[in-house]
Amino acid sequence: MNNHIFGRSTKGEMPVAAKGDGCYLIDSDGRRYLDGSGGAAVSCLGHSNAAVRAALHAQIDHLAFAHTGFFTSEPAETLADRLIENAPEGIDRVYLVSGGSEAVEAAIKLARQYFLEIGQPGRHRVIARRQSYHGNTLGALAAGGNAWRRTQFAPLLADTTHISPCYEYRDRRDDETQEAYGLRVANELETEILRLGPETVMAFMAEPVVGATAGAVPAVPGYLKRIREICDRYGVLLILDEVMCGMGRTGHLFACQEDGVAPDMITIAKGLGAGYQPIGALLTSRGIFDAIATGTGFFQHGHTYMGHAMAASAANAVLGEILDGGLLGRVRAQGDKLDAALRAEFGQHAHIGDIRGRGLFRGVELVADRETKETFDPKRCIAARIKKEAFAAGLICYPMSGTIDGQQGDHVLLAPPFIIEDAQIDELVGKLSTAVERAIA
Length: 441
Ligand code: PMP
Prior knowledge:
- By secondary structure, the protein is an alpha/beta fold.
- The chain has 2 domains: 17-48 and 326-440, Alpha-Beta Complex (Aspartate Aminotransferase, domain 1), CATH 3.90.1150.10; 54-324, Type I PLP-dependent aspartate aminotransferase-like (Major domain) (Aspartate Aminotransferase, domain 2, 3-Layer(aba) Sandwich).
- 39% of the residues lie in helices and 19% in strands.
- The protein contains 15 helices and 17 strands.
- The protein has helices at 38-41, 50-60, 74-85, 100-117, 138-143, 147-151, 168-171, 178-196, 223-234, 256-259, 286-294, 309-324, 327-346, 382-392, 422-440; strands spanning 17-21, 24-27, 32-35, 91-97, 125-129, 160-163, 201-206, 209-210, 217-218, 237-241, 265-268, 280-285, 352-358, 361-366, 395-396, 398-404, 407-414.
- The strands form 4 sheets. Strands 4-12-11-10-7-5-6 form a 7-stranded mixed sheet, with helices on both faces. Strands 1-2-3-15 form a 4-stranded mixed sheet. A 4-stranded antiparallel sheet has the order 13-14-17-16.
- A hairpin with a 2-residue loop joins strand 1 (17-21) and strand 2.
- Helix 8 (178-196) packs parallel to helix 9 (223-234) and helix 14 (382-392) packs across helix 15 (422-440).
- It is globular, with a radius of gyration of 21 Å.
- The model has no long low-confidence stretch (mean pLDDT 95).
- 4'-deoxy-4'-aminopyridoxal-5'-phosphate is lined by residues 40, 99-101, 104, 133-135, 207, 211-212, 241, 243-244, 269.
- Keywords: Aminotransferase, Pyridoxal phosphate, Transferase.
- It comes from Roseobacter fucihabitans.
- Its cofactor is pyridoxal 5'-phosphate.
- It holds the Pfam family Aminotran_3.
């Protein structure tokens, strides 16, 4: 049965999560699971953070909810200001929602309304990449390129096309430098804009480090800068989806800060509430905000729970822990250790083709043959087996079978809490190694 449906028959089919304790989850039978993926890159502070708990206790005594049709609130204003202060250049306004898909939907609609306001109604198309996941609501699903998720719901909303991802391990030619590869693959955006007609293209959307569909694949240096140039050349908005890779996960508050690129919009969620509250945000530039403020004066979008005071207070505590508690440096340090431990364990492994990522956002890609990079037969369900074996060994990780241009591949995404200790890194890699051996046996 689908594990997202609750009630009647669900209990007994899977363990009941009873308690969180730092980097561990504990089930109702007392079994402990090391959280090697933060769920899906959510629990960046671990599971029982004292500062977030205190913030939530304090907030519930004052205010839980006030509808944004009538009020703003202290926690929402504080959160928006702090995000703006620490965001890439040009980001000036924040739209608070309840999760990642909502943030992406808001980005698509804001882009559309922006072009209507400035008198360019013909710009309605979104270009994204084949290797991407942007959420599960209809607009976000249409933007994402993952065939497996899209196919069964086709036809999706029109006007979205997909170009190649920046996927060095599989696509860079032997005779090509990293830089030349980055430019070649970024230039596909220009070709696509010209093919569609620039006057019809509204936005390009991408994750700076691809998460769920790829297993922490960062863009090569220079790729995003070229993307930015192309967007500017044709008046196309650049939307970076940092729902998974944002909020310090890569060692920078926003992943694109490492690439030195300032987008027009950024979406965040997951690590913003860190699992303590459901919250997401769309960050946008001053220019987009002003066009709407001086036009209709009203972004024609909204959800009941946006700007929720409890959710915003949790996010304020999370941001405080990350920025004031020195966690960005810790992510980089522990990320380097995780990378080193993965390389020591799997660097020569016959079935691990690639080890990659940034900060505490890491991935390993499995291959049937290391030399040819041939993938495992999808019927072997290697990713699903790793997930099962790891869980049985007491490790939560995020294996996925990626569908890239119709090609199956298996990878494991790792995104442990930022508080992970050295010994827990060893435990994670040891348990993952056990799971990999059992899955491919
Ligand atoms: N964008 C990206 C990059 C994601 O990884 C996800 C979730 N995996 C989403 C959007 C959707 O977020 P949510 O599940 O909170 O709706």
